[in-house]
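Handoff note, outgoing to incoming analyst
You'll be picking up this chain. Sequence as last confirmed:
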Amino acid sequence: MTRSLSIILEGIQLRGRCGVTAEERAIGQTLEIDVRLDPQVRGAGQSDDLQDTVNYSQIVNFVRGVVEGDEFNLLERLATVLCDGLWEEFDPVLVEVAVSKIAPPVSLPIHAARVEVVRTS
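Most recent structure output, in case you need it:
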């Protein structure tokens, strides 16, 4: 029998600095991050013990540190830095990161621009 487990965090909303123009980075904007992390299965489903899984508050804190701690020109770069960092920090078998810029500065009103990055073993 094969088991998999996914920890999914949707809609992590943070104020970040991501944009091609210096003005866009200086002002900052609302970014929304979704994360899917499939940890190495360690038995939390049976043990009901936090030590046997990845604490999702640690994922949120990691994402917050990256988004609030640096600035990026491209959503692609921010999503890649998040994905690679989560991979290194939590040793999962899969990480998916989606970064959305809410109401980006484009010629027509749109809800968001979104980039997704996936890393798997």
